[in-house]
Write a structure and sequence with these properties.
860 residues; alpha+beta; 6-stranded mixed barrel; elongated
Length: 860
C-alpha cells in the first residue's frame, strides 16, 4: 500500500499540489512566528544605562508594595516621591554626592540666524525620542526632551562630542543623534516647568538611545526643578543603606544591576515584548487553524473525486482498512515533504518577519531572532500532524466506498453529510453561541476582549464549514435564481452545475468563508470598539472649550491654571491624571486610571454615565468608581492606594457604568498624589460671551509661550477619541495576510483540480454547439457564483459575531453603531472572485485546446 500511496501522489500531483503549497506555507508561517515568539520570552540584558558609571544611587521606591495572604504584591506607582532634603544632607557626609533632577523640556529651535528650525522633522528622530520618553506622538514643531543638571551627565557617562559644558544660565548641552538637527551655537526656544525661555546650545553629547536629554547648569536646573529625583553617592553601599534605613522607608539604594531601576522606562522592553508575544501567538494560532481547515477541505474533496478509483480498488479486493491506510499514507507523504519545505521557509523568513515587526513599530528596535531551534521542530511535526489529521476524516469516507461505485457515471452528489458530522457541527456551533450568550449574561465586558472576539469567530467558522455541503445547495439555488432566468443558457447551467456538485461547491466556498468571516469579524470588531470609545468621549464631554498642553504627556503651569480660573465668564474644571490601586479578594492588586477633579465644577463640564449616587457628593473623603469594581455600593468605604503610594479609606460617592473600560475613577486634587494639571475643561457661563471667553483663553495661552492649545469641545473629542492605532492595524493585517494567503492557495488548487476533472463535461458542451468563449464564460460564472456562496456564509458568521459585540456594548450602556469594513471585505471578496475565475478558466482553456471528440472519449 505504501507503493500505491506514492504512486497516487505522483499521478494525482495536481490534486495534492495545493495541499502541499498551503501546508508548506502554513508550516513556514508557524515556524517563522514560533521563532519570533521564542525571541520574545526574554529581553536582552542591557545593564544600567542612566547611572551606569555611578557607584550607588538613592531614589524613592517606584513600586507599591502590599502584603497579602499570598505574599507581597507590587504595582508601579503613578508618581515617585523626591529624595528628602534631610536625607540628601545626611548622605553628603559620607562622600561626594551628585543630585539628579529630571524635568520636562519641550524644544522648538530657531537656528543661528533666527530662522525657525523645526525640531523633530526627521521621522527617525521623532520615533526614537517619542519611544524614549514614553510620551506618545509629539506635537508638530515641538520636541519633548528631559532636562538634567550637567553634573549628573558623568553618571551615564555622557561625553562631549562638540563644544563645552554649560557655565552660565541660558546655556545647554543636548544629546545629538544621527538624525538630530541641533548643533553647537543654535539658539533654542524651550518650555520648562518654570516657563518659556531660550537656551544657547554650547555643546553636544552622543545620543545613548534611552532618552533625549537637555543638560543645564546645576543652579539653573535646581531653580527649574527644586526636588531631587535621584542622588548619586560616591561612598560605601553598606554605609549608604544604614543611613537610608535610619531615615525611614520609601527609599531604594541601587547598586550593580539594580541601577537599571533608575533608568527611564526600565520595564519598557519587557512590556513591549508582551504585546509582541500576544500578537505572534494569535497569528500562529490562526495560521494553524487555517492550515487545518484548508488541508481537511482539500483532502475531503479529493476523496469525493476518487469514488470510482476507490470502488475499483474495492472490486479488486482491497479492504476498507487498506483504502483508509492509503489515503492517510498519501497525506503523510505530502505532509513530510511540505513540512520540510516549510521548515526552510520558516527559518529563512523569520528574520524578515522580525524586521517587519520593528519597522511597523510593533517590536523594539533591538528585536531580532535568537538561536532557538525548537520552534522549527514543533512546526515540522505540526505540519505532519495537520496533514494526517486532515486526511483522517476523509479516509473513513474512502473506506466506506462500495465496489459498485466503479459503475457510477453521474457527477451529482446525492449523499448528505453523515450523522457524526451533524453532531460535531452542532457541538461546535453551540459552543461558540454558548460562549457568546454566557459572556453577555454574566460579563458583557468579557465579550469585548481580544481573546473573545478572535476565538468566537473561529468556532462559528468551523461549525458552519462542517455544514457547508448542506448550506451550499440551497444558497446556490437562491443566489442564482435571477441569473438563471436571464436570456441564454449560462445562468441555468451555472446554477445546475454548482447545485449538482455540492462537494465541489462546498470545497471552493470553504476558503472564502474563512477569509470573509475573519476579515469582517476582526476588522469590524476593532473598528466598532474604537467607534464606541469615541462615542463615549463625545457624550461624556460637555465643555465648550478644552485647554491642553502643547505636547502630549506634559502638564499646564500652575500660574496659567490660575489665569484661566480668573477669566470672566469661564467655568473652569481643572483635572489631573493619577491612578488608584485596590486589593481585590485579598490577593490581587488592581490599578485603575483616575482623574482628579473639582467636584463643584465637574457637572458643568462633563457628563460621565452615573448609575448610582451623585457626582456632587465627591469630596476629599470620597471616590467615584465604576461597575467593574468589586465594591459598588454608594456609601460604603473602600481602602485604596493613591498614585503616590499613600493608603487611604474613601467613601464611594457615585458609581459609573463600565462602558468600554474608559470610564475610570474620580478623586479630588488632594488625592491626586501631587500630579499636575494636564487639562482644563471650560464651560461658558450663560451671561458670558463665548467669543470673548475663547479669546481671553487664547491670549493667556499665547502669553505663556509654551504652545498651550485652546480647542473647542468637539475638536478635543475628535482628537482624544481612541481610534485604531497603527500598531493594532499592522497586527491585524499581519494575522489576516497569513489567512488570506493560505485560503487563496486552497481556492486556486481546488478549482484547478475540479476543472481538470471536468474536461469531459466541457467537451460535451462543445459537442452540443457551445463555443470555446461560451464554455469559458460558463466556467467563470460558476466559479464566481460559488465564491458568492462562500461570501454570504462568511458574512453571516461575521454578522453574528458583530451582533454579539453590539449587544455587549448595549448591555454596558454604550449606544454606538456597528462599523462594518465594507471596503476591505468587498476587496477580499473581489480578490477571491478573480482568483477563482482565473483558476477555473485557465485549466479549462488548456483542456479545450484538445478536440472535443477526444476529450469526450477520455477515461479516468
Amino acid at each position: 500500500m505504501l507503493m500505491l500511496a506514492l504512486h497516487g501522489v505522483r499521478t494525482r500531483w495536481v490534486t495534492f499540489a495545493g495541499s502541499f503549497v498551503a501546508l508548506a506555507l502554513g508550516v513556514g508561517l508557524i515556524a517563522a512566528t514560533g521563532l519570533a515568539l521564542a525571541a520574545t520570552f526574554s529581553a536582552p540584558d542591557k545593564g544600567p544605562q542612566r547611572f551606569a558609571a555611578a557607584p550607588v544611587v538613592v531614589r524613592a521606591d517606584d513600586q507599591l508594595r502590599v502584603r497579602t495572604a499570598n505574599g507581597v504584591r507590587t504595582r508601579p506607582l503613578a508618581r515617585t516621591a523626591p529624595v528628602p532634603p534631610a536625607l540628601v544632607t545626611e548622605l553628603a557626609a559620607l562622600g561626594r554626592t551628585v543630585e539628579d533632577r529630571a524635568f520636562p523640556v519641550d524644544l522648538a529651535a530657531t537656528g543661528r540666524d533666527g530662522d525657525p528650525r523645526a525640531q523633530g522633522s526627521d521621522p527617525r528622530t521623532q520615533g526614537s525620542a517619542s519611544r524614549a520618553q514614553g510620551s506618545g506622538p509629539r506635537t508638530q514643531g515641538v520636541e519633548p526632551r528631559t532636562g538634567h543638571p550637567w553634573s549628573v551627565a558623568a553618571a551615564a557617562p555622557y561625553r562631549l562630542t562638540s563644544g563645552r559644558s554649560p557655565a552660565a544660565p541660558g546655556e545647554a548641552v543636548v544629546t545629538a543623534g544621527p538624525g538630530s538637527h541641533l548643533r553647537t551655537g543654535d539658539r533654542v526656544r524651550a518650555t520648562t516647568p518654570a516657563g518659556a525661555t531660550t537656551f544657547t546650545v554650547v555643546g553636544t553629547v552622543a545620543d545613548r538611545g534611552f532618552e533625549s536629554a537637555v543638560f543645564l547648569g546645576d543652579e539653573e536646573a535646581a531653580r527649574i526643578s527644586p526636588a531631587v529625583d535621584a542622588l548619586v553617592v560616591h561612598a560605601d553601599a553598606t554605609a549608604v543603606r544604614d543611613v537610608v534605613a535610619r531615615a525611614g522607608g520609601g527609599m531604594d539604594v541601587l547598586t550593580g544591576d539594580g541601577r537599571r531601576r533608575a533608568d527611564p522606562g526600565p520595564d519598557r522592553d519587557a512590556e513591549a515584548l508582551v504585546s509582541v508575544n500576544a500578537l505572534l501567538g494569535t497569528a500562529a494560532g490562526i495560521t494553524l487553524f487555517v492550515s487545518v481547515s484548508v488541508v481537511a477541505s482539500t483532502f475531503s474533496f479529493a476523496v469525493a473525486q476518487r469514488r470510482r478509483e476507490f470502488g475499483l480498488l474495492r472490486t479488486a479486493g482491497a479492504t476498507p482498512g487498506q483504502i483508509r491506510w492509503t489515503v492517510v499514507a498519501e497525506a503523510a507523504v505530502v505532509g513530510v515533504l511540505a513540512s520540510a519545505t516549510g521548515w526552510w521557509l520558516g527559518a529563512t523568513g523569520a528574520p524578515l518577519l522580525a524586521a517587519r515587526l520593528v519597522d511597523a513599530g510593533l517590536a523594539p528596535a533591538w528585536f531580532a531572532i535568537g538561536e532557538q531551534t525548537w520552534p522549527l521542530h514543533i512546526a515540522f511535526w505540526t505540519g505532519v500532524g495537520v496533514a494526517t489529521a486532515g486526511a483522517l476524516a476523509a479516509s473513513f469516507r474512502a473506506g466506506r466506498t462500495a465496489p459498485a461505485e466503479v459503475l457510477r457515471e453521474a457527477a451529482v452528489d446525492s449523499r448528505t453529510i453523515p450523522v457524526s458530522r451533524w453532531i460535531l457541527a452542532a457541538l461546535v456551533l453551540l459552543t461558540g453561541a454558548g460562549l457568546l450568550v454566557t459572556a453577555l449574561v454574566l460579563d458583557p465586558g468579557d465579550a469585548l476582549g481580544r481573546k473573545a472576539y478572535i476565538t468566537r469567530p473561529l468556532l462559528l467558522i468551523v461549525g458552519v464549514a462542517l455544514l457547508a455541503p448542506v448550506l451550499a445547495g440551497p444558497l446556490v439555488r437562491a443566489l442564482t435564481w435571477l441569473p438563471a432566468r436571464l436570456p441564454g443558457a449560462t445562468g441555468v447551467l451555472a446554477r445546475e452545475n454548482a447545485s449538482a456538485g455540492v462537494r465541489r461547491t462546498a470545497a471552493v466556498a470553504a476558503p472564502v468563508v474563512i477569509t470573509v468571516a475573519l476579515t469582517a469579524s476582526l476588522l469590524g470588531t476593532v473598528a466598532t470598539l474604537a467607534e464606541a470609545k469615541a462615542t463615549e468621549v463625545r457624550t461624556a464631554t460637555t465643555a465648550d472649550l478644552v485647554v491642553v498642553p502643547g505636547a502630549e504627556g506634559r502638564t499646564l503651569p500652575p500660574s496659567f491654571v490660575e489665569r484661566v480660573r480668573a477669566v470672566e465668564g469661564a467655568v473652569a474644571g481643572v483635572s489631573r491624571p493619577t491612578a488608584v490601586t485596590v486589593l481585590e479578594e485579598g490577593t490581587a492588586l488592581v490599578t485603575s486610571e483616575a482623574r482628579a477633579v473639582d467636584p463643584a465644577r465637574l457637572a458643568a463640564v462633563a457628563a460621565p454615565p452615573v448609575v448610582a449616587g451623585r457626582l456632587t457628593d465627591l469630596d476629599d473623603d470620597s471616590i467615584v468608581v465604576n461597575e467593574e469594581w468589586l465594591t459598588t455600593t454608594v456609601g460604603e468605604r473602600v481602602t485604596v492606594w493613591l498614585g503616590d503610594g499613600r493608603e487611604v479609606s474613601l467613601r464611594i460617592a457615585a458609581v459609573l457604568a463600565t462602558g468600554t473600560g474608559g470610564n475610570g475613577v474620580y478623586v479630588t486634587a488632594r488625592n491626586a498624589g501631587g500630579a499636575g494639571a494636564d487639562r482644563i475643561d471650560v464651560a461658558v457661563a450663560e451671561a458670558a460671551d463665548p467669543g470673548a471667553v475663547a479669546a481671553a483663553l487664547r491670549t493667556a495661552a499665547e502669553a505663556e509661550g509654551t504652545g498651550i492649545r485652546v480647542l473647542t469641545g468637539a475638536e478635543w473629542a475628535a482628537a482624544a477619541a481612541p481610534g485604531m492605532s497603527d500598531s493594532t492595524r499592522a497586527g491585524l493585517w499581519l494575522i489576516l495576510s497569513m489567512a488570506l494567503l493560505c485560503t487563496g492557495i486552497a481556492l486556486a488548487n481546488t478549482l484547478v483540480t475540479a476543472t481538470t476533472d471536468r474536461v469531459r463535461d466541457l467537451a460535451v458542451l462543445r459537442l452540443t454547439g457551445a463555443s470555446v468563449p461560451q464554455v469559458l464564460r460558463l466556467v467563470a460564472v460558476e466559479a464566481v457564483a460559488v465564491v458568492t456562496v462562500g461570501a454570504v456564509i462568511g458574512a453571516g458568521v461575521a454578522a453574528v459575531n458583530l451582533a454579539g459585540v453590539w449587544g455587549a456594548l448595549a448591555l454596558l450602556g454604550v449606544r454606538s453603531g456597528v462599523v462594518v469594513p465594507w471596503g476591505t471585505t468587498g476587496a477580499v471578496i473581489a480578490a477571491a472572485a478573480v482568483v477563482a475565475a482565473v483558476s477555473a478558466v485557465v485549466p479549462a482553456a488548456f483542456a479545450l485546446r484538445t478536440r472535443p471528440v477526444e476529450l469526450a472519449g477520455m477515461r479516468e
